[in-house]
Design a protein that fits this description.
single chain, about 575 residues, five-stranded mixed beta sheet, 19 helices, 19 strands, globular
């Protein structure tokens, strides 16, 4: 689906209210308009949004079962028990595991270890076999991170072996809770609870806060929160904003080493750098090998060890990219033959696909076809492991739950989910999932759209406005970078050209204003656009620093020839 196929949807602009808020806050009217669009209608709420602070974090004891969890860990310290932290193998689980291991050690748990399942050999979550393994390790208490709310059999098996379990998770609760000592999960709280949208690392951070009274490891909470694509508002926004400040200080040797491999400047790190550079490398261990390498990287104080692990993760990431490209080509070829425009969802399966990589490919297909996608890697025993990715209009976690009777196991949230399925149930699942999508997704939602925050002239894009927009950072899910549109701008003759691999740059003129724009992965559109005397552009304005010089630049998200 080409960039040009996207619809532009324009937000209402209430200039009177925006002017009033701008005056109260002492910011440009355009910035006040953007705050209003984010539901920040009072000077107090807007100021809190623009200036995140530690005191904005809610009391961790507001989470159900937090006191029970802390009481059981206190008992473990008193008894000198071995406490095992059992995390998930993605970045959220890796970061949360490191947070909790650090907190338990600070709290005085002398015997503390961690484990996580092997993605390909074991699949997601705590299992009865792992409960047996915990017994062999001598554990008296298991604390899960980013998993466990559906692990009824495993928690029971641990109990039968004389091991207590504390579950910390954020995934959808299917039916009854496991028989754990405590289940700390924001899904148990009402939607207006301050911690209702936390990811697994966020929940681990809250437990760490309750345990130690400290807010250490905010950098790791930020890492998990951005990587897990939970909404960057409220408490999540505070964690990421403050955590990014910690990351840019360069104190965690593991992140310094990883950033060096990714060739990013950690001192200037943004949420996008986590999402596109750090997270994929941390994830690569779990996708191709074992996720414990990621935890080791985040826990180590040794620069030498950090460099060694970061190099291994870089190699795993390169291998992952090669596998991903192969699966993407195979999936796209199938869709080239079989895709019907009227279908509301995509479900594909293959015995040759790598279960550790299909989630990334599902995301790529989702963005290309703009439909909820489930990709399934089948094994030789006829069991398939699937990864699902959604579009904004569709709660994929709930849809998969509705098809649960056809699945061996499943879990997830609104935008992503995982599942296990038998070969003989594939066709029935595909049909049931399509029915869920058809029921929920209006036909008009099946093409991607750009939500344009405001129409602006290029003369309005000045350093003061862009500096204020910086305060809206960190950007991500539910707090996207502001998008402006300007119509009938003139692309300067001969300035539209390819740069790097597949990117386009151009100088745009409107009246006396002249600004440089860069459009990532749009170089193939140069021939079509070069002939246009005027274009409409949708963009995010930003500062660009190159060789010590900072200038304004437009990050072009879409461009089309102006109508005559």
């Amino acid at each position: 689906m080409s960039h040009g196929a996207r619809k532009w949807r324009f937000c209402e602009h209430d200039r009177v209210r925006a002017s009033g808020l701008a005056e109260r806050l002492g910011i440009p009217q355009m910035a006040a308009h953007l705050l209003l669009l984010r539901g920040l209608e009072t000077p107090e709420s807007a100021d809190r949004f623009l200036h995140p602070a530690l005191e904005h974090l809610s009391d961790p004891f507001l989470l159900t079962d937090m006191r029970e969890a802390i009481a059981r860990i206190a008992l473990a310290r008193e008894r000198g028990e071995h406490v095992l932290v059992f995390g998930d193998y993605d970045v959220d689980g890796i970061a949360g595991t490191a947070i909790l291991v650090n907190a338990l050690r600070r709290y005085g748990i002398a015997r503390c270890s961690y484990g996580m399942p092997h993605r390909l050999m074991e699949g997601y979550g705590l299992s009865p076999d792992r409960a047996q393994w915990a017994k062999e390790q001598g554990a008296g208490l298991i604390v899960t991170v980013d998993n466990g709310v559906a692990a009824h059999d495993a928690v029971q098996a641990a109990h039968d072996l004389g091991i207590d379990t504390i579950v910390t998770d954020h995934h959808i609760i299917e039916g009854a809770l496991p028989e754990a000592v405590a289940v700390v999960n924001p899904q148990r709280e009402p939607p207006d609870h301050p911690a209702a949208e936390l990811c697994g690392a966020g929940v681990a951070f809250k437990l760490a806060m309750a345990l130690t009274g400290q807010t250490s490891d905010l950098d790791l909470a930020a890492l998990g929160t951005v990587a897990d694509i939970v909404p960057l508002r409220g408490e999540n926004r505070v964690m990421v904003a403050l955590g990014l400040r910690e990351i840019t200080r360069g104190r965690r040797v593991g992140l310094v080493a990883l950033a060096r491999q990714a060739r990013i400047d950690l001192e200037r790190a943004r949420s996008e750098n986590i999402a596109y550079h750090l997270a994929p490398r941390l994830n690569a261990g779990g996708r191709i090998g074992h996720a414990q390498a990621g935890v080791e990287l985040l826990l180590t104080d040794s620069t030498e060890e950090a460099n060694r692990i970061a190099q291994d993760l870089e190699a795993a990431n390169e291998e992952r990219r090669g596998i991903e490209a192969t699966i993407l080509k195979e999936a796209t070829d199938i869709l080239g033959r079989e895709f019907r425009p009227e279908q509301r969802s995509i479900v594909l399966a293959s015995p040759t696909w790598h279960a550790g990589v299909i989630g990334i490919v599902a995301s790529r297909i989702q963005s290309r076809f703009y439909r909820p996608v489930v990709l399934i890697a089948m094994d030789e025993d006829g069991e398939g492991r699937g990864s699902a990715r959604s579009i904004d209009a569709f709660d994929i976690g709930r849809a998969i739950e509705a098809c649960g009777d056809l699945l061996v196991r499943y879990g997830g949230h609104r935008s992503a989910a995982g599942l296990t399925i038998r070969q003989e149930r594939l066709a029935a699942f595909s049909e049931a999932f399509e029915a869920e999508a058809a029921k929920t997704i209006p036909e008009g939602e099946l093409s991607p759209s750009l939500r344009i925050d405001a129409i602006a002239s290029l003369s309005e894009i000045d350093p003061q406005l862009v500096a204020t927009l910086e305060l809206l950072q960190p950007f991500g899910h539910a707090n996207p970078a502001p998008l402006f549109a300007t119509s009938n701008v003139t692309p300067m003759p001969n300035s539209m050209r390819e740069m790097g691999t597949g990117h386009m740059q151009c100088m745009f003129k409107e009246g006396p204003s002249l600004l440089r724009g860069i459009a990532f992965q749009m170089a193939e559109r140069i021939p079509e656009l070069a002939a246009a005397s005027a274009v409409d552009i949708a963009y995010t304005p930003q500062f660009n620093t190159y060789r010590g010089e900072t200038t304004l630049q437009l990050n072009i998200k879409d461009i089309r020839a102006s109508l005559p």
